[in-house]
Amino acid sequence: MSCGEPHETDCAEVLDHLYEYLDREMPDGDLTKFREHFEECSPCLEKYGLEQAVKKLVKRCCGHDEVPGDLRSKVMGRIELIRAGQAVPEQPVVEPAAGRTEQSGTAPLGSPGEAGGERP
Questions:
Q1: Which of 6, 31, 35, 88 could form a disulfide with 120 if both were Cys (CB 3.0 to 4.6 A apart)?
Q2: For 1-66, where are the alpha helices, taking DSSP H only?
């Protein structure tokens, strides 16, 4: 997605890192850079608002479910592999307590940041 206008920070970069922005998991300089982008780019601001609303809804509906520690560590391990640019094995993550299989990324994991955060 791009609004067609030139920006200091490209729309694709902003959208690629939108969840890091929402979770406040990026350096302060990048947070500022993205906030400035949202102030001048309404399509990206709209996408931000939509993703923020989805995150709040998920937290409200699923935020009280406890996640088994081993599941959380497996998922966080995969996230670290992805961030490091390494290949991630295509295998299901098994929840031992429930005895069922979930695809990675589908179980509510909670977030170290506030769901939805603040509007830019």
A1: 35
A2: 11-16, 18-22, 28-40, 42-62
